[in-house]
Amino acid sequence: ETLVNFPTQKTISTLSTVIMDVKCFYKVRIQALHSLAQCVSGNNDPTVNEDLLISLFQKLYGSADNEAIPRMNNFTDFPQYFLQQDFMRAIGSVKDQAGMTTRKIVNFLSTQLHYNDNQSNEYDDSYLIVAIIDGLTSTIPLKVDT
After folding, report:
1. What distance in Å separates the CA atoms of residue 111 and residue 69, rounded to the nearest whole number?
2. Using 50, 70 and 90 to split pLDDT, how confident is the model at 143?
3. What is the C-alpha separation between 95 and 86, in angstroms, rounded?
4. How far apart are CA 111 and CA 108, in angstroms?
5. Global pTM?
6. What pLDDT sits at residue 89?
7. Which whole-number Å values give the CA distances from 79 to 19, 33, 55, 56, 84, in the listed order?
8. What are 70's strand-pairing partners?
């Protein structure tokens, strides 16, 4: 949690490494994910943006044919499933310097909802769908100027 106060390239790289390390306890990975989302949110560095989180998600959960589309659901690895859910919330929480969500994030989350495929999965995907909707809900501006 303290690392979000130091959004340097080294911090972002370390958090990304933790997120991708399947040997790390899943709750540590989830905390790293949310910390990374905070580092990315409103960052002045143009190279540090939502693309980083989306890229990490696509490496873990993207289809082999087209990373922009999620692969078919397989929830046999519960820690990966919990991380997948939190990716939706973390990505939805990212804002630009003006406090707004970019179109890229809204499109990404909408794509996840549209292409969610649970046909061959023996587990229910209701919690994943809720997480995607939570992420989309986070993109709605809280304050409307009139």
Report:
1. 7
2. low
3. 16
4. 5
5. 0.89
6. 97
7. 12, 13, 19, 16, 9
8. 62
